[in-house]
Amino acid sequence: MSAHIPEVQSTDELRQKWMKPEIISGSEILLRSLLLEGVECVFGYPGGAVLYIYDALYGFTDFKHLLTRHEQGAIHAADGYARASGKVGVCIATSGPGATNTVTGIATAFMDSVPLVVITGNVVSSLIGTDAFQEADITGITMPITKHSYLVRDVEELPRVIHEAFHIANTGRKGPVLIDIPKDVSANKTLFQPGQSLKLRGYNPTVIPNRLQLDKLATAIQESERPVIIAGGGVVYSGAHEELLKFVTQTEIPVTTTLLGLGGFPSGNELWMGMPGMHGTYTANQAIQQADLLINIGARFDDRVTGKLDGFAPLAKIVHIDIDPAEIGKNVKADIPIVGDVKTVLELLNPLVSRSHKADAWRSKISEMKKNKPWKYIDSETELKPQWVIELLNDTTNGEAIVTTDVGQHQMWAAQYYRFNQPRSMITSGGLGTMGFGFPAAIGAQMAYPERLVISINGDGGMQMCAQELAICAINNIPVKIVVINNQVLGMVRQWQELIYEQRYSHIDLAGSPDFVKLAEAYGVKGLRASNKDEAKQVWQEAMDTPGPVLVEFVVCKGENVYPMVPQGSTIDQMLMGDSE
Amino acid sequence: MMMKSHAISVLVNDQPGVLQRVSGLFGRRGFNIESITVGQSEEMGLSRMVIVTQGDDKTLEQIEKQLYKLIDVIKVVNLSSKPMVGRELALIKVKSEPAERPEIMGVVETFRAAVVDIGTNSMIVQVVGDTDKINAMIELLHPYGIRELSRTGVTAMIRGNA
Questions:
Q1: Is A526 assigned a catalytic role?
Q2: Which of B20, B65, B71 sits opposite A140 (nearest CB)?
Q3: CB contact under 8 A, B62 and A326
Q4: From the candidates A273, A435, A463, A492, which is the catalytic residue?
Q5: Residues A39/A92, Cβ–Cβ less than 8 Å
Q6: Locate the Thiamine pyrophosphate enzyme TPP-binding domain: which residues (chain A) (predicted)?
Q7: ipTM
Q8: What is the DSSP string of B27-52?
Q9: Is the previous residue joined to A564 through a cis bond, with omega within 30 degrees of 0?
């Protein structure tokens, strides 16, 4: 059975026809402008204020439209699509509650620099400001969590606004842009002429770095005895994974990748040290603390990475490469600031750098640390360990799948025990830590790559925050493999309560959760369950062999914690090693 | 680090909501606004805001960088880093029985301020100058009884051709 994802009809001929100058409604202008921006897929939910837009969408087959069951599902799906494909994700929601339901997803994309264009309807212009039915000031509400926003007052502005929105969303430091369209604007007609120019005087992201700073960095690398690279989401977003690999191959500097940087550097490479920070590896954290040169490439020194700022990388000269100048010096003072696009920076930097012998002892020390303190957990033969489940997924897929995660313990285990070797293969909510993100994001990723294997790893908590999207998997036969790591508890909260709040387990018991297999079946999705290793291997194989969506519930032991762990307020070398000590 | 008062001039697109974007940025990033003035600039379609804020050098650097991230912001200039002219206007409604008027007029003339309205037992004084001058004027008028006070906040410009 093949996917029932709506087919795109767009041909050059049709596009030419659509692009003719013609007097058409704002809604048609919107659709044609989206086509002009290369949009292939839109996630949305209709309502009163966007009815003209949905009317124009009736029978429109030039791009796919996926009707989710909740606007939160739509915006996370658009986000997953954007992270997987590198293209702009598009979401449509109606005014008022439709628009406010996208707020969590907009904030998620904003924190992780994901390019989205969010189109919301609004009440007719004459009613704006009167507290009309289903009116919300969505541009006002989302101002702090969008890169930019528009309230379109006149249908003639629409082509320009849409063109600008796509440009802003997907250039510089990427991010979500909101376009709020009052109902009358989507109904009014005007002459549509494609081919607009951009007039954005205040917006000129610096792509090409300062050459002098690159020279300084090259010299610093030659002089350094203990260099370390932190690679972040910027490497993935700018498509710089090959340049990074070349940079590391030439210089042989040990690398750690942040949560959003996973996949930006191959995990099999012997210079890879794992993830840094709160649940990072012993090696990565020790290396940062002992480094004399710390090269941050496209990461933003998030507090989950740095721990206590005062004692972070105390011996290191800090190099910070970022497209967003405001990130440089925001948390950690940079000795060599480099503003620019990561890919461009590395392209220009690579001819200037080479391996330094001064760091030979350091390289041996790092591989020693990796050998002595690897990721590990105590396995069990009687019950399923969540880490073992992740290893099972990794082994059977060879690290080739696109993995989305939700937020919590399973997210950290996925980051630790799944081996990401390709960019855009790890899709996870980093900055905002949004529960409910993982499953709809997988649907978006699958829309971007209908032929690839997409696995969505969830906890039993987060799965219940967007479970309604099982319906669109079933109806459209979207073949996401949905994993629920069920420990019957809010695991990460339980872990904090155990370690920091004196085992006062306040309101974390998820008793009353549905039977996930039956829940899947109720939506028409195949459901499977495993409680031990044999069952796990068997049902996972069955899931892989089954075309179409499958939900697999792994019932795991309740009390497992994520280690290592750096307690909040500690420096990152003050790690609790837990069971693996 | 030293907390100082800074005047920042921000040239912005004259778009609805731009004041909210700028002031909202200050609020949510924990930057303090002492005063903010907005008006037309020398160019059609652009407005100039002058914001007086307190902070150390690091805060000021973040303010400038964060402002530049707003799409509607064209140019940010830290006026306090150079010799500048900073002016504020205040209207002060002061109680004045006819017998007290000459005395008040004396204060007004010394400060090169102006009386712009006279009522039966009050008058409105208009004063333009730097913040210190306005503060001094208010202090001197205080004993007569200030009924209402309205200040515009500082607008400013760098001296010379810069």
A1: no
A2: B20
A3: yes
A4: A492
A5: no
A6: 406-554
A7: 0.92
A8: HHTT---SEEEEEE-SSTTEEEEEEE
A9: yes
